[in-house]
Design brief:
Rossmann fold, binds S-adenosylmethionine
Length: 227
């Protein structure tokens, strides 16, 4: 199946509301487990490490990370202001401190937020890569933001071989969700990358310390260290 891009930012209030109310807890937990196992298998973090969650949305990953790493400085970056409003409300309700930054990856690449450059000890994203029209942006930005030895974990959907397979995945995993979510899920599967495409992206970015692998029937995981 050919890749079909979807809009990058999720800034439509109805879309944000449907996303924020949906239960992604199984997938979120899996991303968090992968992050913790990457951290456990990597050299010790500095005492007050900087963690950056790119395309953080309503904070599904940022907030649990802030809770489990109270000494870390957490930065959640998203281009969509309405997503960050939800994230900020949730952080306040949970008494967690996160620095929410409304900026696109393109803004960061242009040098906005210079205080982050070369400082990240951990860069994560969950369900971001498939949004990017130019995926190379994520990899060049990883280089720009990373401190030496930065740990990286990105988890995202991967593109099925056919539209029929995409529909089967939707029927299996989101049989009767709200119409907007079903539409977004199918669009996201079509916009996602195959493992071989991400391999080529990592090679082109010379990120030899990162590996990509398929997970489950619909995900891919990129993880490793920036050398
Ligand atoms: C599917 S949501 C995932 C949100 C969150 N990471 C989670 O796990 O629930 C993707 C998010 O990436 C953001 N996004 C997409 N493209 C972006 C870009 N170029 N710059 C910044 N944020 C972007 C969208 O606005 C949206 O909030």
């Amino acid at each position: 199946m050919q890749r079909v891009c979807e809009p990058e930012l999720m800034d439509d209030p109805q879309q944000v509301q449907a996303y924020a109310q949906a239960d992604f807890s199984d997938g979120d937990r899996r991303t968090l487990v992968l992050i913790e196992s990457l951290l456990a298998g990597s050299p010790a973090l500095p005492q007050a490490p900087l963690f950056i969650d790119l395309g953080c949305g309503p904070g599904n990953i940022t907030l649990p990370l802030a809770a489990s790493h109270p000494l870390a400085e957490l930065v959640g970056v998203d281009g969509a202001g309405s997503m960050l409003s939800v994230a900020a409300q949730r952080a306040a309700a949970a008494g967690l401190t996160v620095c929410w930054q409304q900026a696109s990856l393109q803004d960061l690449q242009r040098g906005d937020l210079p205080e982050l450059l070369g400082r990240a000890d951990l860069i994560v994203s969950n369900s971001l890569l498939h949004h990017l029209h130019q995926p190379g942006l994520l990899w060049s930005l990883t280089r720009v933001l990373a401190a030496p030895g930065c740990r990286v974990l990105h988890r995202d959907l991967r593109r099925p071989a056919t539209l029929m397979e995409a529909r089967q995945l939707q029927e299996r995993h989101l049989p009767d969700g709200p119409q907007l979510l079903v539409r977004d899920f199918l669009a996201s599967l079509q916009a996602a990358f195959e493992v071989s495409e991400v391999e080529a992206q990592l090679t082109a970015a010379d990120l030899n310390g990162l590996n990509v692998r398929a997970e489950d029937d619909r995900y891919l995981v990129v993880s490793g260290l920036v050398d």
